[in-house]
Amino acid sequence: MAKPHTWHLLSMPIARGDTEGLDLLLAGGGLANGLIALRLKRIRPDLKVAVVEAAERLGGSHTWSFFQTDLTSAQLGWVEPLIAHRWPGYAVRFPEGDRRLSTPYCSVTAASFDSIVRTAVSGRLRLNAPIREVGADSVVLETGERISAKAVIDGRGPIAAPDLALGFQKFVGLEVRLDAPHGMTEPLLMDATVDQAGGYRFLYVLPFDADTVLIEDTRYTDGPDLDHGALEAGVVAYARDRGWRIAEVLRREHGVLPVALAGDVDAHLKRMGPAAQSGLRACLFHPTTGYSLPDAVRLADLLATISWRSGEDLADHIRRYAIGVWRSRRFYRLLDRLLFRGAAPPQRFKVMERFYGLPQPLIERFYAARSTTADKMRILIGRPPFPIIDALPCLIER
């Protein structure tokens, strides 16, 4: 990891013969669609699957992380080749103290994702191919070329969502090589001892090797606007405050992830159009953390077990699944409303500080979106870090 990643940058056109009789066309080569392609290659090699991506590589310039307890052992087994880094635990840091947890933490890099998924769809991959229009059974490229399939899944990332009430988790990250070893052996997932900048803010640090780290300035805010300059300056200042001198910036990444507060998911999915959806477009993400890899793995597993007669049929399958997932996560949206609407922005860190005082198994189930009834009661019972009267309007999901 001490040298910048490199990718094959040439577009690989899908040969005409390979576009005939497609069972599935994946519009967008991001995380969700890439995992679908990978899983179907392994479990349903009889299916003819192709990917069309607007950029010059798959997966963009992202790092996707997850807790090992988010996945079953079977899921972890097929995701394993994608994992570029794994640590036996992680730490968090708040004004009232630090805590180390022994939950293994894993990261998939853009380089590992691109390499493995590219191999899985070899011969049926179109890069540098922006899409003009997506239908249930075809896509039209900006060039005017139409590619047809029995079904299409649109996984091109989030767009405006007027049917949902959202907060936002925004971040800018720098992968840097330092001029001396950093001394870290495990990730620091939240360092909230920094200035809160008017909302919940923390620095996130992944140590890739002895002198290479990914540092992200992350902020939970009410609006989606991302000030790249301010957050990158926050990363640089944090490194300086840790006594680290940046020798080289290897890579930059940024993102604006949704934090779900409320919404009409059925109306949202209908607004997305006739094609099946995946990833953030399908609201398949953890409502509080924005983590999407576990949900993408689950959707890929689902698609490996069902058949579809048409694009409309597949869209209906995924729509019903996504609505069920959304409805099962009301509790997390309640917590998000308490965070965004109950707590004053400069005091939001206290909600997470209190949460990290709870037992590790409860925290693991929370991140896996498998909280038990007892977990939910334990999280809610006790004196909240803001006035009770401010919490009352948050109880009803509107």
Q: What CATH architecture of the domain at 16-67 and 109-160 and 263-327 do you see?
A: 3-Layer(bba) Sandwich
Give the beta-strand count. Answer: 18
Low-confidence stretches: 1-12
> β content, as a range?
25-35%
Could you name the key traits of this structure?
single chain, 398 residues, alpha/beta, FAD/NAD(P)-binding domain, seven-stranded mixed β-sheet, five-stranded parallel β-sheet, 13 helices, 18 strands, globular, disordered N terminus
Structural write-up:
The protein is α/β, with parallel strands linked by helices. Among the domains are: 16-67 and 109-160 and 263-327, 3-Layer(bba) Sandwich (FAD/NAD(P)-binding domain), CATH 3.50.50; 331-394, no CATH class. The protein has helices at 16-19, 31-43, 73-79, 110-120, 228-241, 265-271, 293-303, 311-327, 330-342, 349-355, 360-367, 373-380, 388-391, and strands at residues 24-27, 49-52, 63-67, 83-87, 90-94, 97-101, 105-109, 125-126, 131-134, 138-141, 146-148, 152-154, 164-178, 188-191, 200-209, 212-221, 246-263, 276-277. The strands form 4 sheets. A 7-stranded mixed beta sheet has the order 6-5-14-15-16-13-17. It has a 5-stranded parallel beta sheet with strand order 8-2-1-12-18. Strands 3-7-4 form a 3-stranded antiparallel beta sheet. A hairpin with an 8-residue loop joins strand 14 (188-191) and strand 15. The longest helix has 17 residues, at 311-327. The chain is globular and about 60 Å long.
